[in-house]
Design goal:
This protein is an alpha/beta fold. It has 3 domains: about 1-50, no CATH class; about 55-190, 3-Layer(aba) Sandwich (Rossmann fold); about 205-370, Rossmann fold (3-Layer(aba) Sandwich). It has helices at about 1-15, 20-30, 35-40, 40-45, 45-50, 100-115, 135-150, 170-185, 205-225, 240-250, 275-285, 290-295, 330-335, 350-360, 370, 375-390, 395-420, 425-445, and strands at about 55-65, 70-80, 90-95, 125-130, 160-165, 230-235, 255-260, 265, 300, 315-320, 340-345, 365. Bound molecules: NADPH dihydro-nicotinamide-adenine-dinucleotide phosphate and (2Z)-2-iminopentanedioic acid.
Length: about 450
């Protein structure tokens, strides 16, 4: 298709130093090809050119002072990618790997993910190349305050609503919110989500991404006459998403045998003891290696790229750490070991070749944009509660989350069927999301 090829070529030329962004765009645009073919008017509207160009990209200096009194400087970002459906919405990532390419890929994906939730949220993302590892609470606080000293002028509860992502959890959101409140001299609770329960946070937000991933997996398995009970599961990462995916999978009777972090993985044939993991990760902010010191019979494998986990035999694999953590080689190992389903908790964890391989081999693949949308969906529920100055119970929020995830699965499945794509839920998710986003953009004119 000439129009699509031209757009992809131009994007490549313009963003040649942004491989992650190009990867995310390529996956979406190639899978929605049958939709583009049906709509010649998209070309005159320059719809693909507009949908792949952020509305605004902000980059700023973040100076802060460490405990030794030394001045440090990091780079901060906020990418406001698409505001057609609602205020820009998406997390903040603090990780040394953060750069413009990673920010743009995450913000681009977020627009489609947020469209799938059915809630009124646009797409954005932000963060910094700041490395929170080994920093004291006071250093984290000073960094967050400096970050907000610039970010505050770009956000607002009706403008752009950040939340957490890698390296940003309740502690960081607390410091960010405090600084925003001080600068603005107003209690605008809905400006950030993932807040503590004492000051406007939502019950079940902490659990939402991981639980949502398993609700999506449950629906996908159900459509394929299977369920989670008795399945062996491996989960990469041991942060927020991994921990609560593990918890819900265990509640459904699955046996989770492995978790990891960026230094290596633990294997526990008895099934992971999540209380031990929560103590190490949520309380002590320690390394997963510690699990093997505390739980008899478990084995730790050190590993610089943290991919040793994919060598462990399992029925279901849940990548919940970072982008491109499953390569073609990993996919081949997983398939050879009999994996039947992969659920993406992380954003873009499976590279393009690995996605193709899984689909070719009939592995059920739950794509990130759909399968990890429970976090941002519950953030939107947090915004609703903040607007109402009211809060729902855990059960109420969890039930809404379950319904949202079931609806997202149904949308992915029916879009895939409509275009004769069988069980390609990757394409199904992209088509369903594009359908909504493109209609909202076209309705609002050329902006
Ligand atoms: P956390 O910071 O809580 O945990 C991240 C986990 O992934 C840690 O175990 C970390 O190990 C590991 N990890 C991070 N980067 C790398 C890397 N480069 N190589 C190997 N391991 C790595 O983050 P979350 O759990 O919140 O996020 C995990 C993934 O889920 C991300 O892709 C995020 O974008 C996505 N996501 C998060 C949502 C949320 O609500 N939090 C919502 C939707 C998606 P270590 O401690 O060693 O760095
Ligand atoms: O990738 C994601 O969807 C998130 N990090 C959650 C974003 C949010 O606004 O809750």
């Amino acid at each position: 298709m000439q129009y699509l090829n031209n757009v992809l070529e131009n994007l490549k030329a313009k963003n040649s130093n942004e491989p992650e962004f190009l990867q995310a765009v390529y996956e979406v645009l190639t899978t929605i090809k049958p939709v583009i073919e049906k709509h010649p008017e998209f070309q005159a509207e320059a719809l693909l050119e507009r949908i792949t160009e952020p509305e605004r990209l902000i980059s700023f200096r973040v100076p802060w002072i460490n405990d030794k009194g030394e001045v440090k400087v990091n780079r901060g970002f906020r990418v406001q990618f698409n505001g057609s459906i609602g205020p820009y919405k998406g997390g903040l990532r603090f990780h040394p790997s953060v750069n413009q390419s990673i920010m743009k890929f995450l913000a681009f994906e977020q627009c489609f993910k947020n469209a799938l939730t059915g809630l009124p949220i646009g797409g954005g993302k932000g963060g910094s190349d700041f490395d929170p590892k080994g920093k004291s609470d006071r250093e984290i606080m000073r960094f967050c305050q400096s970050f907000m000293n610039e970010l505050y002028r770009h956000i607002g509860q009706d403008v752009d609503v950040p939340a957490g992502d890698i390296g940003v959890g309740a502690r960081e959101i607390g410091y960010l919110f405090g600084q925003y409140r001080k600068i603005r001299n107003a209690y605008e609770a809905g400006v950030l989500t993932g807040k503590g329960l004492e000051y406007g946070g939502s019950l079940a937000r902490k659990e939402a991404t991981g639980y949502g991933l398993i609700y999506f997996m449950r629906e996908m398995l159900k459509e394929n006459n299977a369920d989670l009970k008795g399945k062996t599961v491996i989960i990469s990462g041991s942060g927020n998403v991994a921990i609560y995916a593990c918890e819900k999978a265990q509640q459904y009777g699955a046996k989770v045998v492995a978790l990891s972090d960026s230094n290596g993985s633990v294997y526990d044939a008895q099934g992971i003891n999540l209380e031990v993991v929560k103590q190490i990760k949520e309380v002590e902010r320690g390394r997963i290696k510690e699990y093997a010191n505390r739980v008899k019979g478990s084995v730790y494998t050190e590993d610089t790229n943290s991919r040793s986990i994919w060598k462990i035999k399992a029925d279901i694999a849940l990548p919940c750490a970072t982008q491109n953590e499953i390569t073609l080689e990993d996919a081949k190992t997983l398939v050879a070991n009999g994996v039947m389903a992969v659920g993406e908790g992380a954003n873009m964890p499976t590279n393009l070749e690995a996605i193709e391989y899984f689909l070719e081999k009939g592995v059920l693949l739950a794509p990130a944009k759909a399968a990890n949308a429970g976090g941002v969906a519950t953030s939107a529920l947090e915004m609703s509660q903040n607007s109402m100055r009211y809060s729902w119970t855990f059960e109420e929020v969890d039930k809404k989350l379950d319904d949202i995830m079931s609806n997202i699965f149904a949308a992915c499945s029916s879009s895939a069927k409509e275009y004769g794509l069988g069980k390609n839920y990757v394409a199904g998710a992209n088509i369903a999301a594009f359908d909504k986003l493109s209609k909202a953009m076209i309705a609002q004119g050329i902006i």
